[in-house]
Amino acid sequence: MRIGLIGAGRIGSFHAAVLAGADGVGELVVADADPGRAAALAARVGARAASPDAVLMPGAVDAVVITAATAAHAGLITAAARAGLPAFCEKPVALDPAATLRALREVDAAGTLLQLGFQRRFDAGFLAAREALRAGRLGRVHTIRTVTSDPAPPPPEFLPHSGGLIRDCLVHDFDAVRWLTGREVSEVYARGSAGGAAFFREAGDVDTAAALLTLDDGTLVTATATRYNGAGCDVRTELSGERDQWVVGLDGRTPATSAEPAGPGAPARPWGGFLERFDGAYRAELAHFLRAARGEAPNPCPGWEGLWALLVAEACELSRREGRPVRPAEVAERAGLDAPGPR
After folding, report:
1. Strands (DSSP E) along the chain, which ranges?
2. Which of 70, 138, 272, 310 satisfies CB 3.0 to 4.6 Å to 241 for a cystine?
3. CATH ID of 121-274+305-334, from 3.30.2110.10, 3.90.1150.10, 3.30.360.10, 1.10.1740.10
């Protein structure tokens, strides 16, 4: 297969290295809005450099991987659909429901494949927890707790284009909860704080957030995120049921120190960042996309899944700003959408 990759930044560089050595990839073409950056990455991984427009010309490649800046996602997804290309795109499709909806309708009209990058769906721990939950091994699950903590804040220039902590980070937790349980979020209540660097407050963002979600079967979910976790990258999900309790992300590299006298101390090598923490998941995700693009596997994460997770994030952002509980259905109604049902 000839694969085009558009976006030569941090995640694009990671994906390019994986694709360059992937089975079934005969040629990798790297593109970026900055030609120099595309050329440098192409040289590092043994690929060919081109412009984004050249990659998206009909017949130029067999499939495209979109890892460009968030603001470019919707336009690139639309262009790929119109060119008849299967596409993988890192989340989000866009930062607002209206733009997301327009791009998804382009994909539907073209009848092409769009796989969205929620890599936790390919993580071994999340997969095992989903299987256990769906098999009934935990019994009735009454409480879910999620944690997403970055070891250090991003650069200040990242914030205005990120959508904020809730849309950027917690949206992963929202997607994971929907995917794990097969349920929808009926109501949210969210709070945030910005006690760290001033650039968070200047961007209207927060560096720490917490949300209480109520699922449509009554299950309660607490989801927390922070940009300040000096111990390391911490991504955990606890599923508490009447029969058993499972924890995703609890291993010898979890950046936590037990306060108990006989408990474990700080790990010698905690997870340093999300790319390291989810290395295997990212690789499995791309391998599945290649199979899906060849028609050998179903789409594990259609673009619409990103919209439903975004509606939860939008509801949380609205709740944080207005200090009230918000139903994602309210956000969906404003966008002219019917809320999704259980999957």
Report:
1. 2-6, 27-31, 48-50, 63-66, 87-90, 114-117, 141-149, 185-193, 208-215, 220-226, 234-241, 245-248
2. 138
3. 3.30.360.10
